[in-house]
Amino acid sequence: xxxxxxxxxxxxxxxxxxxxxxxxxxxxxxxxxxxxxxxxxxxxxxxxxxxxxxxxxxxxxxxxxxxxxxxxxxxxxxxxxxxxxxxxxxxxxxxxxxxxxxxxxxxxxxxxxxxxxxxxxxxxxxxxxxxxxxxxxxxxxxxxxxxxxxxxxxxxxxxxxxxxxxxxxxxxxxxxxxxxxxxxxxxxxxxxxxxxxxxxxxxxxxxxxxxxxxxxxxxxxxxxxxxxxxxxxxxxxxxxxxxxxxxxxxxxxxxxxxxxxxxxxxxxxxxxxxxxxxx
Length: 279
Hints:
Metallo-beta-lactamase, Chain A, 5-stranded mixed beta sheet, globular, 7-stranded mixed beta sheet, single chain, alpha/beta
């Protein structure tokens, strides 16, 4: 079933979309609209819903927080309809031009990513609309090109996929846990009230929930390092931590989405530290 629902958070509107096959969608994604700006364009299979939702809006510009297809999926079709500029980080503009590796679950729930050569790279640390000024904050880890948009005067933090949930059960293959922890700490240093996560917007307790995720990842990271130093393999570390593999998801995604990827992420990050700072 295709899912769509509109929301309003003060002057901010959002369209929440998703797709499920045996019930409600397991993952839903928000596109936000405020002051003529569309933040993220939703997954490719939500094209009709996005265009219908935008029909009565004065769309002036688009900002894509990172290259994953549930955020960049409708850039070209919206630009063709509205003839507006779409902006992103320099790295994002490069990544969406390449062959995006995606898994079967992502294809099923979001659709096939498109080659995009119409993004305008933004090389400054602010982004402006007629009435708002957003600081652009690099938050790599989930994706190397990911940016958050922070409106200090309003206390709004558009956090892309930095939050999602205070407890994480799986990683994509290329995610970095060390970078995620540093990105979360960077966001936690900001003064904000609304955590406008693309998968779970929170108007109350957002900073507390973000701190909970940071605490969770730091604890997870420390446990992996502890067991690794004892000589345990990645698989045994996962078991010793009391974590379970999501086997159906792991197999269907060809290991792109799995619990063991979280352990591998820590081990990669630790190996990089040793290269940079050998003892």
